[in-house]
Amino acid sequence: MHAYRSHTCADLRPSDVGTEVRLAGWVHRVRDHGGVLFIDLRDHYGMTQVICDPDSPVFKEVEAVRSEWCIRIDGSVKARDASLVNPKLPTGEIEVYIRDLEVLGRAGELPLPVFGEQDYPEETRLRYRFLDLRRQGLHDNMVLRSDVVRDLRERMWGQGFNEYQTPILTASSPEGARDFLVPSRLHPGKFYALPQAPQQFKQLIMVSGFDRYFQIAPCFRDEDPRADRSPTDFYQLDMEMSFVEQEDVFATIEPVVRGCFERFGGGRKVDQVFPRISYAEAALKYGTDKPDLRNPIEMQVVSEHFAGSGFKIFAELLEKDGTEVRAIPAPKGGSRKFCDRMNKFAQGEGLPGMGYIFWRDGEDGVEAAGPLAKNIGPERTEAIRQQLSLGKGDAAFFLGGRPSEFEGVAGRARTVIGEELGLTDKDCFAFAWIVDFPMYERDDEGRIDFSHNPFSMPQGEMEALEGDPLEVKGYQYDLACNGYELVSGAIRNHRPEIMFKAFALAGYDEAEVRARFGGMVNAFTYGAPPHGGCAAGIDRMVMLLADEQNIREVIMFPMNQQAQDLMMGAPSEPTATQLRELGLRVLPPAK
């Protein structure tokens, strides 16, 4: 017999009754029923109940066993009495009578229990992550993650892609976040950067004549943490294709993503058609470029109904250039109590409030109520109701100003309304391609800068760059799912003359472009093919599939909110020897 086990803790069935077996695993739970000891023995695969009574030669040793000890037992398989069968376990029809025991690893007092799914402070969970990972929910998430990665690989290979690895130490590049820098011992005063993405390398792979590339790629960005974003590193399904247009990329990645969500989505509905929504339309209707289409609410511009009206706040606001009023329909939200709750939400977002109208029974049919209704009169409120297709028992909320200043709040309000009124379908995955992103934006100081990926091809190529930069759209696209950005990509700018012009509009002269991206620019002068691709965030995909709200629940060893690894003690102070070798000196933080 094997030194540690003849079977796993998920293997045994009634057909094994009467056989001698050896199991190994962790003590999940110990129960004493009148002198008979019952132990739930757990390993990676499952759980088996083992029992011991005073007739066993190792009863005293078994009495000493505690939760999370790692043990090996020998015993005989017995059938459970019909009244004691546990239908929740695959091994629930049998149990193993212990005849021999070996303690493989004792456990001290536990800082958090493994049995059950109690909610413990995140600091404790991360410091003792190796224990936290033994808990069934988190353990299942990690297995799901492994299965998803394998599935994605198989689907990419099935579409004729080859997997290639790109460097981890590289040069710094503007990907929209801070780089992690690595000092060079051989080149004092110079630094490598950990790649924010394999962007330049995968484009160079296309120039090198490899037609279809993919990689399960680690990416490193020094970012502020969020619930759906790691503050240090993440993994993505990275892909690139030659001789393609935007729709070719969509047609390639859609079945990969759809198939994965169908396989691991737990029976939830998955969209078969991924609609295309322009960036401008998404901002208008949903207040975000990653809309949650499970929520049917679409915002609309209703400025004409407030212009010159008795509601002076909106009427005077609309006299200024670039302003408008938008309505957020709220089917079934037509009560003063709900409207007051949403008003409180707006105040929590830093606004003085949010105007509203709700419709109820009146003497002549549907009657508008609320402060706005009194100010603008029945004719205008009826026109608003007709435009929004609302009726008795419904409401609408209103925000006004420059869209860039209120769209974010409006989008969050739309989400809250959909959740509170039960309009958001929780049993599906709703996808949408967001397209036609603006290439440029004005920064806080009024200068033109790239709004997204600087390596994208502008729609209209060189001709488009001759006009107003803020009107230029790029062949850039994101795939949104349930309110999260899941995939991001672009058709690349592979022509040096267009690249120099595009960067010049953002304030980079040709010399700086050559200095920062010399390898890629040089390669493009030797017959670069048209190419494009995208990257899908694996951590975020698994988070959605596992129905988790925090990305740390699907990462094996995540950092905490302060970008610290509490278990391993990172980041840590370097030794004096390390600093001398690198020619570095650490200065105290500025006060």
UniProtKB/TrEMBL annotation:
Chain residue ranges for the region called Aspartate: 199-202
GO cellular component, as recorded: cytoplasm
Cellular location(s): Cytoplasm
Function recorded in the entry: Aspartyl-tRNA synthetase with relaxed tRNA specificity since it is able to aspartylate not only its cognate tRNA(Asp) but also tRNA(Asn). Reaction proceeds in two steps: L-aspartate is first activated by ATP to form Asp-AMP and then transferred to the acceptor end of tRNA(Asp/Asn).
UniProt: L-aspartate binding residues: E175, R221, H452, R492
Annotated source species: Palleronia aestuarii
SUPFAM superfamilies xref list: Class II aaRS and biotin synthetases, GAD domain-like, Nucleic acid-binding proteins
Name of the gene encoding the protein in the UniProt record: aspS
Protein name from the UniProt record: Aspartate--tRNA(Asp/Asn) ligase
Swiss-Prot/TrEMBL keywords: Aminoacyl-tRNA synthetase, ATP-binding, Cytoplasm, Ligase, Nucleotide-binding, Protein biosynthesis
Residues bound to ATP: R221, D222, E223, E485, G537, I538, D539, R540
